[in-house]
Amino acid sequence: MRIVHIELAESSSGGHRVCCQAKVTYADRRGFEERYWFDVPEALADQLTLSGNPWLVLFAPLVVHLREPLEIDARVDAELLRNVRELITIWSCWYPELSPVPIEAIASEVDLLGGQDHRTASLFSGGVDAWFSLIRHTDDGVQARINDLLTIWGLDIPLSGADGFSRMKGITEEAASAFGCDAVDVAVNLRETRWWRDADWGLVAHGPALAATALVLEPRYRHLITPSTHHYDSLIPWGSHPLTDTLLSSSGLRVLHDGGALTRVGTIQRTAELDLVKGS
After folding, report:
1. Which whole number is the average pLDDT over 181-193?
2. What are the start-end ranges of the E strands in the chain?
3. Which of 30-44, 50-64, 122-136, 195-209 has the lowest mean pLDDT?
4. What is the mean pLDDT of residues 209-230?
5. What percent of the chain has pLDDT over 90?
């Protein structure tokens, strides 16, 4: 698999938006090419990265399933490259049918403009785990106070579900306003690509997809908070996991797996009394 022509382009959706896109070719499908993109509000255009970092993270789950080497025609952060190679090793231990594959990219030991604004984003879907992280990381004295709630269109809600995403975006904007954050929405076309069909969303791919969405805005962020799925005493191999989420970090952006110390019951109890949560 080869990732080429990473560039900024006008969004096909219009509406004062811009996208970071790349073209992907596959070793097992000669002549077949796909276009992948991340679409953001035009106001964030100068905070999109043209590095290979988000693409390295995004395609790691796919290449281990296809058993193809990954070539990226762009510089990648050296720390992130080391992390992803370790991540692939962990996947191969968890799932013997997967095996490490070569990754070819130009590694840079210099921070590729990560975290210039030193902001913290938290992934937000309106679920209990996302609410818990929001409550926990807007208190004074926390490790990383949340500045942005990051909502992704094209994963749980397909691009064809505009009404559903509009409702979720409204909840995110209300929560952001109440907690003094900004709401940022990113659209992705993963559901329309081979990635969605051939990468295993649940067991491997969703953690990297979420992290890649923040890495495409790497000049904006220093931290990404990923709300946990499982409690620390009941961990299982999964696409978002405290062992692997941290390996989606570059030298400029740190991924923080959050909330695993509290059980599901504890998380619900912590958030249940918040009026905004009841309303969502």
Report:
1. 97
2. 2-10, 17-26, 29-41, 70-77, 103-108, 119-123, 148-153, 182-188, 221-227, 254-258
3. 122-136
4. 94
5. 76
- One domain, residues 126 and 246: yes
In angstroms, the CA 266 to CA 68 distance is 43
Q: In the chain, how many domains are there?
A: 2
Is residue 152 domain-shared with residue 202, that is, in the same domain? yes
Examine the domain organization and report whether 80 and 201 are in the same domain.
no
* Res 136: pLDDT: 82
Same domain, 69 and 15: yes
Q: Which two tokens stand for residue 181?
A: 């954050």
Question: Is 113 within a domain?
Answer: no
Averaged pLDDT of the chain: 90
For residues 80 and 251, is the Cβ–Cβ distance under 8 A? Answer: yes
∠126-131-135 over CA atoms, to 5°? Answer: 150
Same domain, 200 and 249: yes
Structure confidence at residue 115 as a pLDDT band (50, 70, 90) = low
Token look-up 């696409």 returns 239
Are residues 256 and 169 located together in one domain of the fold? yes
Same domain for 270 and 149: yes
- The answer to whether position 60 is within a domain reads yes
